[in-house]
Design a protein that fits this description.
The protein is globular. The chain is of the alpha/beta class. It is built from 14 helices and 12 strands. Helix content is 41%, strand content 15%. It has 2 domains: 176 residues, Rossmann fold; 148 residues, Glycogen Phosphorylase B (Rossmann fold), CATH 3.40.50.
Length: 349
């Protein structure tokens, strides 16, 4: 491959999303970088607040999926041929067809994939992306515990690239109305595992933000101290939730075989106190008890919540140290983009 000067990122272009943060980082590093935003061709609607309209559009999207996918790939190839990048970074690539990668490879362009979720989790993949799996020159992933599986399934090269945070999108807010408004907050989508864990926290004042919580059983939705806020929060709204939460609970996704997630970096970037599942990967990244609090089981979770609610000074110290570890460490997109380029040049040049 040629020396890397021009980069095309396949992904979403909204502020705060990984592709957009990468675009900014690569541009600041001096690379000529653009995004191909596949979402422009994906949906029949644009964020309608009407649930009936959203449901109808979702059904239409599924019915016309093949047509949408073909259109996305046609536009994708057109932009590749117009821009002629030295490197293409596909973020997940749920709609990228194998034949598109084959066409790109014939142009002499290297294509890598950065998938922060489990590539083979049915919730985060499509038949097309599975078929395209072996065509990528490098797979970047924050999941070293899955590397052997990826290689066994045909990955040519697998490189570790950890998740990170954009300090321009996630940062401490200077003030919010009122002081602390809850003992514990959780920001994330519904799952049965998360519901079962959160119902154990009924002795504390808990606020839950995120999608899908209408699926929780009626008895859960009726617990007095568990408050379903019935909305998702992003960027500054997310920072405000962190600001007014004494403890920011982070529950990793079992179904996704998580050992880290984006919240691990977004919470401390907003100077929140983070309490998360204990994993080998997190123990390598953060100092337990100094930069993050961790738990192994339900009882330890409850004990840690009680302890840190009673010890505000210790809680604030952990939040401050976590902030410094994320912002002053190598956990920003600028750092990750440097690591990605270094790996590509080492493996492919």
């Amino acid at each position: 491959m040629n020396k890397i000067n021009r980069i095309l990122i396949y992904g979403e272009s909204w502020r705060g999303g990984m592709p957009h943060s990468m675009l900014l980082a690569f541009t600041r590093l001096g690379y000529d970088t653009i995004i191909f935003d596949y979402q422009k061709y994906l949906s029949f609607h644009q964020f309608s607040i009407n649930r009936i309209v959203n449901k109808l559009c979702y059904v239409l999207d599924q019915f016309y999926f093949k047509k949408r996918c073909t259109e996305i790939n046609t536009k994708f190839i057109q932009q590749v041929e117009d821009f002629l990048p030295d490197l293409i970074i596909v973020m997940k690539g749920l709609h990228v067809l194998p034949e598109s990668l084959e066409k790109i490879k014939k142009l002499g362009i290297s294509v890598v994939n950065w998938h922060v979720d489990d590539f083979f989790n049915p919730l985060y993949t499509m038949p097309y992306s599975k078929e395209a799996f072996t065509l990528y020159d490098i797979h970047f992933s924050p999941r070293p515990h899955l590397f052997e599986e990826y290689r066994r399934l045909g990955a040519k090269n697998v490189e570790y690239l950890g998740v990170c945070v954009d300090p321009n999108a996630f940062y401490p807010v200077s003030s919010v109305s009122g002081n602390f408004q809850c003992d514990v907050s959780f920001v994330g989508s519904w799952s049965k595992n998360r519901e079962n864990l959160l119902k154990k926290l009924h002795l504390f004042n808990v606020q839950i933000y995120g999608s899908g919580w209408h699926r929780a059983v009626v008895s859960f939705r009726g617990i007095p101290n568990i408050h379903l806020m019935n909305k998702s929060v992003h960027l500054e709204d997310f920072s405000r939730v962190i600001k007014r939460s004494k403890i920011c609970l982070n529950i990793l996704t079992i179904e996704n075989r998580d050992q880290t997630n984006l919240r691990n970096f977004e919470i401390p970037a907003c100077k929140g106190f983070q309490l998360c599942n204990r994993t080998p990967q997190l123990l390598k990244i953060f100092k337990e008890g100094e930069e993050i609090a961790l738990y192994e089981n339900e009882q330890e979770l409850i004990d840690k919540i009680r302890y840190y609610l009673d010890h505000e000074e210790a809680r604030i110290k952990v939040a401050e140290n976590g902030f410094k570890a994320v912002i002053n460490g190598d956990h920003t997109y600028k750092s990750r983009c440097k690591q990605l380029i270094s790996a590509v040049e080492s493996v492919l040049l």
